[in-house]
Amino acid sequence: MSKKFTGLLLFSILIVLIMVPISFAQDDTLLLNDSSSDDALISVSANESNVLTSANEYYFDASAENDGNGSFENPFKYLNDNRLYDNSVIHLASGEYTLSPSKTHSNVTIYGENSIIRGNGKALTVTKYFSLNNLTIANMPITNQATFMASGITFANSTAKSTGSYGNSYGGSIYCINTGASIYLYSCIFENAYAEYGGAIYAVG
Residue 111: which of 69, 78, 70, 150 has the closest Cα? Predict the structure, then answer.
């Protein structure tokens, strides 16, 4: 093999070694082989704008000195209807909170620490999805229009309001108002609930 040909071959190899890392450095997207298809590739971007974020999370602490901004470091002190943001996760530190429900809420999950929410007798109306965990709900019946889940909840001292032309009341603690509504209850307690139909729970259908 001539020295000229050998030199040309070495130069070509060097160019390839330089170009390969440059081509990979131009894109921060990682391609992973999908076992479900030999040809399919899954694109995983390192660009923050393409990364999905979790649901909005808000924190409350009834013992906080000041009413904060709802962050973990600076939690809200007071719970109110406007702070039950749709599509959110709510964290309630141990303590007692008051709530005067006035509107419908959807896609909300509330986690308590043996916390207490005291209502004013008005029903909390929920739609799409609503979940309560490790709380006491007092004097605040639930009107459920879709999917309602409760785990470790004590429903206490609630009375259903009269509705309709006959003035009947339904579901002292939970009223599933239509045939498409579902409830899922785990380790829940019902105390002092009253309604003409369904002292604790009434489900249509």
Answer: 150
